[in-house]
Amino acid sequence: MDKLVKDRATAWVRLLANAKREPVVICYCGKSKEGQWLWEVRQGDKYLALQGTELQVIESLKNC
User: Fold this and answer.
1) If we measure between CA atoms, which residue out of 52, 7, 4, 1 comes closest to residue 26?
2) How many domains would you assign to the chain?
């Protein structure tokens, strides 16, 4: 997973930790033209777009 995506995931998880407790939803959005899997992480009206395999996205969110 590239550094920018990991940094964005880290910032997102920190934001979630400080936010009021709302469900976090991870949605698969399809594949990019380059064949990367695209995901959207949502909590309330906030969202983050990530790319990578399901395991990469979950691990990047867990390890932040």
Assistant:
1) 52
2) 1
- Tell me if the pTM is above 0.70: no
Q: Which residue has the higher pLDDT, 58 or 52?
A: 52
Could you tell me which residue, 15 or 37, shows the higher pLDDT?
37
- The answer to whether the CB of 62 falls within 8 A of the CB of 51 is no
CATH of the domain at 29: 3.30.160
Tell me which residue range forms the domain holding 56: 3-62
3-state secondary structure 28-62: EEEECCCCCEEEEEEECCEEEEEECCHHHHHHHHH
